[in-house]
Design a protein that fits this description.
Blueprint (H helix, E strand, L loop, with lengths): L3 E5 L5 H13 L5 E5 L13 E9 L3 E2 L1 H6 L12 E7 L11 H12 L3 E2 L3 E2 L11 E2 L2 E2 L2 E3 L8 H16 L2
């Protein structure tokens, strides 16, 4: 089994593509297991000490439907002692009042269940009004905007994975 479990939800395939890029930047499937949350059980999260959670913000500040469907079931997962990183896909121009809200919603829930959040990301270089994913003037994870900043995605992933390797102690 890989050391890191990456669980993502996707509607249009963008979040899956980001997840695959993160896996490759870490060094492939021997290090990171990809899990589409639509095909996973919340108990699968228990198998890893290091987790990466990916969720796009859908509609107006909502969770992607597969994450929404298992949200209450997250209470049954033992997150104590787990290090959890987050990434999200969103549109900072079209949805500037709830940019990356889904990432913040999941981080708030999972951290309340005993996990340690790692992978905080600077809000510099983004232009939005509000976000549930901002804590202490930082995003709770990697914010990706393929709609407006696709040229920055590759370098952002590279820098974030480098940061996570250190924070996960790998």
């Amino acid at each position: 089994m890989a050391k890191i479990g990456l669980f993502y939800g996707t509607q249009t395939g963008v979040t899956q593509t980001i997840a695959e890029s993160i896996q490759q930047e870490f060094g492939g499937e021997s290090i990171v297991d990809l899990n589409d949350i639509a095909n996973a059980d919340t108990s699968d999260l228990n198998a890893y000490d290091y987790l990466i959670i990916g969720c796009p913000t859908w509609n107006v500040g909502e969770l992607q439907s597969d994450w929404e469907g298992i949200y209450d079931d997250l209470d049954s997962v033992n997150f104590q002692g787990k290090k959890v990183a987050y990434f999200g896909a969103g549109d900072q121009v079209g949805y500037s009042d709830n940019f990356q809200d889904a990432m913040g919603i999941l981080e708030e829930k999972i951290s309340s269940l005993g996990s340690q959040t790692v992978g905080y990301w600077s809000i510099e270089g983004y232009d939005f009004n509000e976000s549930k994913a901002v804590r202490n003037n930082q995003f709770v994870g990697l914010a990706i905007d393929e709609d407006n900043q696709p040229d920055l995605t590759k370098n952002r992933i590279k820098a974030w994975v480098s940061q996570l390797k250190s924070e996960f102690g790998l």
